[in-house]
C-alpha cells in the first residue's frame, strides 16, 4: 500500500526525522492560507506516482495569490491518469546538497537493504549502479552505527553530515521495521545548513501486514471492480481487452494471458480464483468476469483441490440467472472432470482438454 | 536418487487438524510420504488419518523425531510456528501459508539461516521426490520417477508443466516449488546446485515468472556452473508494469523484473526457452538427445 507524500512525512515526523513545515490542503483557498504562513512556498500535488515534477505537478510560489492560482491549476490536473485531489503546501527550504536514501527488501539476500547515494534529487533509475551504495542489513543485528560509519566512509561523507546520518538512518530503519514497510525512500534527502531534512517521502506498507497496523490510513489504487475482487478475496487486475479470463493459480493465469496474446487476442483481466473455491466463490468470480464487458469468456481449470463440477455448476447458475449469451471457451481437466463436462454438455458447451486449444478457440470467438 | 527428501525422510505436519492440514495429510500418506505425526496446540491425544496429534513440536519430536515439517498455519501465526520448528531441530521446513507479512518472512529466514534449517516457501506448493516422498499440496498423480528435475516459482503452472511431461512419458526426480512471495528460502541457484550434483537428474526445467531478479541470477549461475542442460519457461509476458499478478513477487517495478530481461539472460546462458508451456516436453526431449 503506497502512502501519499504528506502521510509519509507525518510518519517521518513521528520517528524524529525532520520534514519541512507544511500542511495538506484540498482547495485553492486553503492553499493560499497555508502559503501566507510561509512566504516562499512550494505546492506539491499528492498522487501515487513518481515524476510529478516533470509532469508539472509541483509549483513554487511567492505569494498567497500565486498559491491560489497554482493550486487551482494543479487540482484540475491528471498525472499519469491519476486525478490530483490533494496538495501539500510547504515552506520553501534552501538546499545545500541533495542525497538519496532508501530502505527496501532484497529478495536475493533475503534481508533489508539500505540504498544510499550522493546523487539525490534525480530519478532513482537514472542513478548509475556504481554511484548507488547497497548495504544489506542483518535483521537480527539491526542497523548498527558501524554500518553507517562504513557507508559514510565509502561515500566520502565526514564531519557534521556523518553525525546527522548516524542519527537519521536508524530512525528510518526503525520506521521500516516497526511499520512493516516494503519501501521507505527519501529523495532528495536535503542538507540545509547543518541539518538533514526529508524533502520528499515515499512509503509503501506491506498489505499482508496491515491487520496489525490499525492506526495507518487505508489507501487504494484499485479500480471499483478490483476493490470488489479484494472483498471477495480474489486476485484480480483489469487489463482492458476483449477476452475475460479466469484460471486457478497465479502462474497458470499469467501463462493463459500470455497465450491469449500469443494467438492474437487481448485479455480483459487477470483473475486467479485460487484453489478449492466453492460454488458461491466461483459464482462471484464469474460475476467479476462479466463486469469487464468482454466479447468472450475463457475459463482454464486444472483441478487439483478445485473441483471441475463445482466450477461448471457455478457457471451454469450464473449463465441462467444473468441470462449470459456470450461465447465461452472452457478447458476442464482434473478432479471430477467427467461430472463437470456433463454439466457443460447440457448447456451445449464441450470443454477442451488442453489450454492451447481453449485459448485458440477463445481468440477466434472474441474477434468481431 | 533425488534431492532434499527421499523415502526415509520423516515428516511432521504443523496445523494437522485444520481443513487444509487434514486433507493434505491424507494425500501425502496416499503418496507414500513417511508422516510421523502432527501438531495443533490444545489437541494433544487426538488422531488424524491414523497419526498422533501433539500440542507442540517439541512434544512431537520427543515421541518420534522428524527431519522435516510442513506448515499449514494461518499467516498471523506462521512466524511463531516456523521459529518453533527450527528451535525444536527441524532441518527442512516447508511453509505452505500464503500472505505471511514480508518482515515475518525476513525474520524466519534469518533464524533458519543461523540454525542451518532449509526453508521452502512461503507460499509454495512444496516439494516432491517422485515415487518417494511428497511434502506439499500438489496433485499426486503426475509425480512419477524419471530423469527431469523441476524448480518453479508457481504452483498450478508447474502442475501443468509436470503433467505435460508425464503425459509425454517424462518423469521427474524432484520437483521443488520455491514459492511466489518476495522473500523465499530456497532459490533457483540453491536448487540448481543440488540438481547438478544429483546423478539421477539429467535435465532441469526452470519455471519462472516476471518480477524480481531471481531468473537473471539463475542464468548467470547456469552459464558458469551447470553442465546439465536447462529448459525454461517464464510466465507473465503480457503483464502490465506496476500490477501485482496474483503472487506478491510477480510485479514489474521501476523497469525491473521484466519478461524481456529474463529471456535475454536465459538465452545468454544457452538455456532452451519455451515460448509456451506445452513446448516444454519437446525441448526436454531435445535436451536429452532423443528427439
Write the layout of secondary structure elements.
The complex is a heterodimer of chains A (368) and B (291).
Chain A: E1 2-3, H1 5-14, E2 22-25, H2 28-38, E3 41-45, E4 58-61, H3 64-75, E5 78-79, E6 82-83, E7 87-91, E8 97-106, E9 111-117, E10 133-136, H4 145-155, H5 159-178, E11 181-192, E12 195-198, E13 202-205, H6 224-232, E14 235-238, E15 243-247, H7 250-262, E16 269-272, H8 279-291, E17 296-303, H9 308-322, E18 328-334, H10 337-346, H11 355-366
Chain B: E1 10-14, H1 19-31, E2 34-39, E3 47-48, E4 51-54, H2 57-63, E5 68-71, H3 75-87, E6 92-95, H4 102-115, E7 118-120, E8 126-129, E9 133-136, E10 145-152, H5 155-167, E11 172-177, H6 188-197, E12 203-209, H7 214-225, E13 230-235, H8 259-268, E14 272-274, H9 280-288
Parallel strand pairs in B: 1-2, 1-5, 2-4, 5-6, 6-7, 10-11, 10-12, 12-13, 13-14
Antiparallel strand pairs in B: 3-4, 8-9, 8-11
Helix pairs in contact in B: 3-4, 6-7, 7-8
Please characterize this protein's 3D structure.
The complex is a heterodimer of chains A (368) and B (291). By secondary structure, chain A is of the alpha+beta class. Chain A has three domains: 21-91, ATP-grasp fold, A domain (Dna Ligase, domain 1); 97-212, ATP-grasp fold, B domain (D-amino Acid Aminotransferase, Chain A, domain 1, 2-Layer Sandwich); 224-366, Rossmann fold (3-Layer(aba) Sandwich), CATH 3.40.50. Chain A is 37% helix and 25% strand. Chain A has eleven helices and 18 strands. In chain A, strands 1, 8, 9, 10, 11, 12 and 13 form a seven-stranded antiparallel sheet that branches. The mean pLDDT of chain A is 93. With 291 residues, chain B is of the alpha/beta class. In chain B, 35% of the residues lie in helices and 23% in strands. Chain B is built from nine helices and 14 strands. Chain B has a seven-stranded mixed sheet, sandwiched between helices. A seven-stranded mixed sheet of chain B has the order 9-8-11-10-12-13-14, sandwiched between helices. The radius of gyration of chain B is 19 Å and the shape is globular. Chain B starts with 9 loop residues before the first strand and ends with a helix. The relative contact order of chain B is 0.12. Chains A and B meet through α7 of A and α4 and α5 of B.
